[in-house]
Amino acid sequence: MRKGVVVAALLAVALDVVPGGVRAAVVPGTSCTLLPADNVWHADVSQLPVDPNGALYLATSGSALLKLHPDFGAYPYGMPVNVVDSTHASGSVAFQYADESDPGPYPVGADLAVEGTPNDGGDDHALTVNRDTCTLYEIWHAQLASPPYTGGSGAVFDLGSDALRPAGWTSADAAGLPILPGLLSYDEVLSGSIDHAIRFTMLHTQSAYVWPARHQAGTAGPMFPPMGERFRLSAGFDESGYSAQARVILEAMKHHGLILADNGSNWFFQGTQDSRWPDSLIAELKNVPASAFEAVDESSLMLDPNSGAARQCGGPCT
To answer: Within a 13 Å sphere around the CA of 83, how many CA atoms are in the beta-carbon half?
Structure first.
């Protein structure tokens, strides 16, 4: 693993608390929250109604036969997170999808860790937080070690804002969403509380997206889920056979759920790159059946289609 300014994805040790007791994790080494506490990523969806199309989505995703797959761990698994300040080198990045990418400049340099191993054919996501400005820079297919700097697509997010990307725009994710706020971290598990939804992938998605997603990359029909669809673990799922650390994650899945953010293997959910992830915990999570999830209709939480701010109802919003 490359040395430098990599934070091994330590999230949610410090928490920002707003009126009403809603919390938002803070990026370690910074004072930056992972989006405002009222953002839909932090919403509790445990009492929301199920999506009437949910049974179809579960059937077409192979949920009857599949179990969850934790897509993280020690290098090269998971996504590394870089933290820099405003003195760090930055530069212009040439994007394949420039018309839907923010122009930057972006942090660049050989010290920035990129997902996966070089030339492995993977997504090569680069996630970087500027601690001075609380700006999140995310690039898909990042080549940042030396000029010319290139990427497939790139997005810049103000971590203190609920603003969404322009309608129809991608990001470093097919759904046009930020990646970092949806990653699991081991420090969250150790803290005993995870306050946000978790990013996950499905192989086939319909050619549509739902709030808070802004973009779709699907080729399938309406029997498949759209980008942005949210799934939660059933409230009645029996956690008694799982370890205390696994139950922290299972509780997050019951209350905050999973958000469909990209095309990829069915029921793979993402976390940070960290050598401390226990093999035993990873193995436990591979035993959670996908059939124990249900699709959620979170449309009642939306205040504005161009904002990620969510109604704080504590149940169905009417």
So the answer is: 15
Distance between CA 298 and CA 25 in Å, rounded? 22
State the pTM of this model.
0.92
Residue 154: in which H helix or E strand, if any? strand 153-158
pLDDT in tens, 31-81: 999 999 999 999 999 999 999 999 999 999 999 999 999 999 999 999 999
Q: Domain extents for the chain? A: 6-301
Size (the chain), residues: 318
Give the separation between CA 141 and CA 182, rounded to whole angstroms. 19
Nearest to 260 by CA among 57, 23, 65, 11: 57
CA distances in angstroms from 197 to 56, 60, 144, listed in the order given: 22, 22, 29
Least Cα distance to 101 among 157, 150, 170 occurs for: 170
Element of type H or E holding 268: strand 268-273
